[in-house]
Amino acid sequence: MKKIIQLAFLSVLMAFQGVAQADVAQESVATPQTTAPVQAVKSNEEIRQWYNDAVAVIPTLNEQWKKDGLSAEERAKKAQEIRHHARVEARSMMQNKQEVAELQARDQEKYGNPDGPTFEFLVEKNRLKGLQGDAMYEDIIGSSNRTNKEYNEKYGVKKEAQSP
Q1: How many domains does the structure of the chain reveal?
Q2: Rounded to two decimals, what is the model's pTM?
Q3: Do the beta carbons of residue 77 and residue 1 sit within 8 Å?
Q4: Which long-range contacts (CB under 8 A, 24 or more apart) does 8-14 make?
Q5: pLDDT band of 12, cuts 50, 70, 90
Q6: Which of 30, 54, 121, 144 is the most buried (most CB within 10 A)?
Q7: What is the domain extent for residue 53?
Q8: Given a cut of 60, is residue 30 above it in pLDDT?
Q9: Residue 21: which H helix or E strand, with range?
Q10: Any alpha helices (H) in 24-132, and if so which ranges?
Q11: Dihedral (C-alpha) 67, 142, 117, 6: value to the nearest 10 degrees?
């Protein structure tokens, strides 16, 4: 099952890279050390859209995980892992390291972790909300593809612009 998550995440990454390579097809530079194209710098708007698209696949994956017989806890862990990896990858694409540091400081204050909430944090948050058992995990799954509205508006990302 971990392979399914990795494949889904890699598919999203490859799709993004394909778009990036198409954008820079005429900007390729060959050097004696490499013949790989030089990647164009992506704007924060493009990175934010990529992040939203990366987590937009979670509900579809969750339906497949259900068919595969995974428990609510296993599905919640997978959903959180996809979102976590997308968050870290998106930040690695950002050019302005001060902006990355500000996002990490926000996450440290909000979640106690510079890279966003851990699975354990989300479980505890749901316990404090009074959720128990599968309801606790279903809530994590349900929120795993909901991204911050304020940041989406700041970077011009629209829900309807996301991949299905």
Answers
A1: 1
A2: 0.73
A3: no
A4: 8/57, 8/61, 8/82, 9/54, 9/82, 9/85, 9/86, 12/50, 12/53, 12/54, 12/57, 12/86, 13/54, 13/89
A5: very low
A6: 54
A7: 2-161
A8: no
A9: helix 2-23
A10: 44-56, 58-67, 72-93, 97-111, 119-128
A11: 30
Can you tell me the distance from the alpha carbon of 9 to that of 93, in angstroms, rounded to the nearest whole number?
A: 16
**What is the Cα Rg of the chain in Å?**
17
pLDDT confidence tier of residue 159, bands split at 50, 70 and 90:
low
Residue-by-residue DSSP string for 23-49: HTGGG----SS--SPPPPPPPHHHHHH
pLDDT, mean of residues 131-153:
95
Kindly state the tokens that stand for 103: 């996002």
Distance (Å, whole) CA 126 – CA 116? 16
- As a whole number of angstroms, the distance between CA 132 and CA 126 comes to 8
Burial class (CB in 10 A: 0-12, 13-18, 19+), 24: middle
